[in-house]
Amino acid sequence: MGLQQNWIAFCTIFFKEVRRFMRIWPQTLLPPAITMSLYFVIFGSVIGSRIGTMGGFDYMTFVVPGLVMMSVITNSYSNVSSSFYSNKFQKSVEELLVSPVPNWIILAGYVLGGVARGLMTACIVIALSLFFVDFQVYSLLATILAVLLTSLMFALGGFLNALFARSFDDVSIIPTFVLTPLTYLGGVFYSVKVLPDFWRGVSQANPILYQVNAFRYGMLGYSGVVDLDIAFSIMAIAVAVLFVVCLHLLNTGKGLRS
Amino acid sequence: MTKALTIRKLRKTYDNGHEALKGIDLSVEPGDFFALLGPNGAGKSTTIGIISSLVNKSAGHVDIFGYDIDHDLVAAKCHLGVVPQEFNFNQFEKVQDVVVTQAGYYGIHHREARRNSESYLKQLGLWDKRDTQSRMLSGGMKRRLMIARALIHQPRLLILDEPTAGVDIELRRTLWDFISEINSQGTTVILTTHYLEEAEQMCSNIAIIDDGSIIENTSMKQLLRKLDKESFFLDTRQVLPEQSIFAGYDVRRVDEHTLEVEVGKTQGLNGLFLQLNEQQIDVVSMRNKSNRLEELFVGMTNKDK
């Protein structure tokens, strides 16, 4: 297949993914909107006013970047894991496997479909946050880079999960038992600066801490204890490693070919 | 001339140690209508799985129109269309979208894909259902949808794995007319089916696979010549005597009006008809006890069991 055919194949997979999550918007786009609105009301208006400031910002302003990243992480991940696993389950993935689409295009199509949902959710959450705080961007480049790399990383993670999954339970285990705890402990609701030394050290082993704080830096100019160079390097390396691993597994047919 | 399909020393051993293919060799000429038959678990689906790259082979070579699937997989896949045994399309997509999406995977422009899909869906009687979710289709319609999807990139080699399973007789005939037409236009067709009379009628060449090995690979005519005897049922107008004896023929009285007779390849039926005539018994109809290919197939695949 030439460049043009590859492009058509990529667009086919990507737009199929976008159509899928748009078609089932009450399951994909509405829940984060409702959940985040509740977070804004509870943590922002009800509890936030009693907390005061965090990192020099009022609490509501402080949590908005964390909540945006939280929805980007879960939505990028779950879009790819559920869609690809569902195609495996229905065997419709065979349509792709018998076709001449190169594996890297299959991977790119699904992953960027997940990124599209992550970014769309981010836009929805940011739009909702405008009802509670003023919109501000300290560094547009850092904001875009952080959200893109995070979304890519978790979309690739979702793809990896789908490759190994043998049942729908396997698709929900990682988000429930790994992603949610790491996200909550990743500085979404607090600055790790307020933690005791030991727990601050433990928190620094959590990759989500770097993503949340890199994005917070982009929006507010505040990154807490996180060094931005390290944060972006970790994200870029994780994306590259996950891409290579997923592509290798696709090439060998792991979870797809007997 | 380049073969449509060449398989050399193909082996497959699954992770559980089951040896599904034991080094098979097979070749299919371009334009052929080829039957790949075998009992359940013989290795047909594994062979098709390897050709369509859904199953990893353990050893051996597969070429599709001269393109080795190890070195020119993309080129090989471009020439191949597969209609699998199980429904494997997205059940929530609309009928035309299933076909158009598949075209996209082959790099076909959306406009061209829609035009081609309209043509195939019309030919297969699915055009009126184009906006229906595919899960709402009947079993026969789903099978036709898979055929339309497999043809959308106009493959030179079409593999049909049990295409008429669960399809009613009328539709089966329509389907075979359509596939014959595709074959007459130059598309090579490989068919697996449990309806052996279909294989006998449609296919010019045949391979029989059993327990992971090819036990027969020849033309349909050659194979049928191997049949040394055939069994027929004769329906008679008059009541048959309790002890029906016909010199030189192995006969059995099934009921008052039905006689079963086994006839050797060199024997012919004229002698039997003469004797029936002498006994003033009229034959009103005659039919094969079983399909000729079926008799051979059962004999071959049960030889060592």
From TrEMBL, chain A:
Q: Which domain of life is it from?
A: Bacteria
Where would you find this protein in the cell? Cell inner membrane; Membrane
InterPro entries from the UniProt entry = ABC-2_transport_permease, ABC2_TM, ABC2_TM_bact-type, ABC_2_transport
What Pfam families does the record point to? ABC2_membrane
List the keywords (alphabetical).
Cell membrane, Membrane, Transmembrane, Transmembrane helix, Transport
Q: Which residues form the ABC transmembrane type-2 domain?
A: 23-253
Broad class of where this protein is predominantly found: membrane
Instruction: Give the record's membrane topology.
Output: Multi-pass membrane protein
Query: TM spans, by residue?
Result: 29-47, 59-80, 101-132, 138-164, 171-192, 230-250
Q: Which PROSITE patterns match?
A: ABC_TM2
- Report the PANTHER family cross-referenced here: INNER MEMBRANE TRANSPORT PERMEASE YADH, INNER MEMBRANE TRANSPORT PERMEASE YADH-RELATED
Recorded family membership: Belongs to the ABC-2 integral membrane protein family.
Q: What is this protein called?
A: Transport permease protein
What organism is this sequence from? Parendozoicomonas callyspongiae
UniProtKB/TrEMBL annotation, chain B:
Q: Does the keyword Disulfide bond apply?
A: no
Q: Which Pfam families match?
A: ABC_tran
Q: Which residues form the ABC transporter domain?
A: 5-236
Task: Tell whether Nucleotide-binding is among the UniProt keywords.
Answer: yes
Gene Ontology MF terms:
ATP binding
| Residue ranges the record marks as coiled coil | none
> Keywords in UniProt for this one?
ATP-binding, Nucleotide-binding, Transport
What is the designated name of this protein? ABC transporter ATP-binding protein
